[in-house]
Amino acid sequence: MSYLNICGFEIGDSSVCAATVGTLTFNWAYPPSGNERNGYGYVDVDGSLGGNHNFILSSYTQNIGVPTTFSADTIYVGAGVQLKAAPSGTVQLMGGRNSITKIKGNVHVNADRTLSVYTGSTSVAGGSTVLALNTWYYIEFKTQQGAAGAYELRINGVTELSGTANFAVGNYWDVVFGNYSLTLNTYRFWFDDIYINDANFCPGIPSIDLLFANSNGTYTGWLGALGSLKVTKIQDHPPDGDTTFLYSSTNGSVYTMLTTSDFVFAAATDSVPVIKYHHVVRVASGGAPAFRYISRSGTSDNMTDTDDNPGAGYLTRCRLWETDWDTSLPWTVSTATSSETGVYDNSGASCTLRVTHLSGEMLYYTPAVSRAKYTPHAGI
Predict the structure, then answer these.
(1) Which pLDDT does position 21 carry in this prediction?
(2) 19: enclosing H helix or E strand
(3) How far apart are CA 123 and CA 125, in angstroms?
(4) Which of 235, 264, 224 is nearest to 341 (CA)?
(5) Which residue segment(s) compose the domain that 234 sits in?
(6) Phi/psi at 158 (5° precision)
(7) DSSP state of 303
C-alpha cells in the first residue's frame, strides 16, 4: 500500500472520518452556481469550546469502502493547517495511534506558535519556525514505530526537524488531528487537504479537488423523478439526504455518473497520485439488501465483489485508487476527471436501495515547482 486515505472535506459529510470526538464544525462555502456546487471544505477544531476536540482518519479498502484501521510501521501524514487562535500552552496538532487511547509519534503546537515532535506526551525536539496566525501552511510528519523510530517534520516542504526517538513498539493504525488528551485550551485550528501514506511523503505540496457529478455515465438503470436528468439528484454538496435521491428496486440495476472537476484548479500537467470515490447510500426497504460499488475508467469497469448492507441510515462508502485500472498507469487530470463511479443493486427484487450523493476527490500536485507555498482553494 501507499496512500491509506485522502480527505479534502469537499463533500461536506463527517462520515468521511472513522470517528469524531468532541464538537467539530465542518464548514463549506459554495459559489453561486445553482445546483452545481463545489465544496470548499475544511474542518474547524475549536479548543475553546471545552473538552477534547479532534477527528480521526483511518483507511479504506477498495472492496467495500468501510473505514478500517491499518497496520503501518511508518506513516507519512500531510495536512493544510491554519492557526486561527494561538494556544495558551502546548496542544497536539496531529499524530498516529496504535490503540484507542495511545498516541505515539505526534506533532504539537506550542504557545509561541512553533512546532514540536512528541512521543506520547514527552517532547522529543522543538522547531524554530513561528507560524503566523490566519496563514495556511502545509505540515507533513513522518513517524516510525519502535525504540529508535525515525521521524521528520516538514513545513511547506522544508525539513524543520528530523532524527530518531523511542516511539514504542507497535504499528500505527490511524491518525488523530486536533487535541486528544490535553486540557482545555484556547487554540483553534483549521485543517484541509489531508493525506496519509505508509511509504513516502507526497512529492509535491498537494491540494484536493472535488470530482463533481457532471452527467449521467455509461449506466443509467436507477430511477429518478427527473428521468435522464437524474444526475441532478446526486450532485449537491453536502449530501442532502432524502431531499434528492436515486432509487432502485430492480435486482441488477446499475447507475454511474461521469465525474469532472467543476471548478478546475488542477492544471492538465499536474500529477495525480490518488483519487477517492464517495458513495452516500442507504437501504430504504426490503428483505436482503445488497449494494456493490462500480467505477469506470475508459472502457473498463471495476466493481466490488462483496455485498454491502449499510442499513437504514445514510452512510458514506469510499474507494481509493492509485492506478487507473483501464491503463494500468498512474492517473492523470484528464483520466481522473473523466472517470465514473456509481452503484449496483445486487439485492432481491423486493428491496429498495437509495443513493443521495456520488462524487470523488482527486489529490494533485505540480511537479518540478518550488514547494515554498501552500494555498488551498479560494473561498476559505
Answers:
(1) 40
(2) strand 19-21
(3) 6
(4) 235
(5) 208-365
(6) -105, 130
(7) E
pLDDT at 181: 58
| Shared-domain flag, residues 212 and 283 | yes
Which three cell numbers, joined as nine digits, stand for 216?
Answer: 449521467
Q: Tell me the C-alpha distance between 189 and 277, whole Å.
A: 27
Domains identified in the chain, total number: 2
As a whole number of angstroms, the distance between CA 279 and CA 178 comes to 27
The reply to whether 285 and 151 lie within a common domain is: no
Convert 7-33 to b/e letters by CB count within 10 Å (16 or more is b): bbbbbbbebbbbebbbebebbbeeeee
Q: Which amino acid is at 27?
A: N
3-state secondary structure 75-100: EEEEEEEEEEECCCCCEEEEEEECCC
Signed CA dihedral, 224, 230, 231, 237: sign only: negative
Q: What is the pLDDT of residue 51?
A: 59
Tens digit of each residue's pLDDT (9 = 90 or more) over 251-264 = 899 999 988 765 56
Q: State which amino acid sits at residue 80.
A: G
Reported as a single tens digit per residue, the pLDDT across 161-203 is 999 999 999 999 989 888 765 555 678 888 888 999 999 999 9
Number of other CB atoms surrounding residue 375 within 10 Å: 12
Same domain? For 219 and 314 the reply is yes
**What is the rounded distance in angstroms from the CA atom of residue 85 to the CA atom of residue 126?**
20
Residues of the chain with pLDDT under 70: 1, 12-41, 49-52, 100-101, 180-185, 226-228, 261-264, 368-373, 377-380
Query: Which residues fall within 8 angstroms of residue 46, CB to CB, at 6 or more apart?
Result: 23, 25, 53, 188
Cell numbers placing 201: 511523503
∠ CA 58-295-337, rounded to 5°: 90
Residues 12, 41 share a domain:
yes
Determine, yes or no, domain membership for 375: no
Distance between CA atoms of residues 224 and 246, nearest Å: 5
pLDDT of residue 238: 73
Task: List, in sequence order, every residue forming a beta bridge with 141; answer none if it has no partner.
Answer: 77, 153
Upper half-sphere CA count for residue 345 (Cβ side, 13 Å): 30
CA within 13 Å, CB half, 302: 20
- Which amino acid would we find at residue 54? N
pTM, whole model, 2 decimals? 0.91
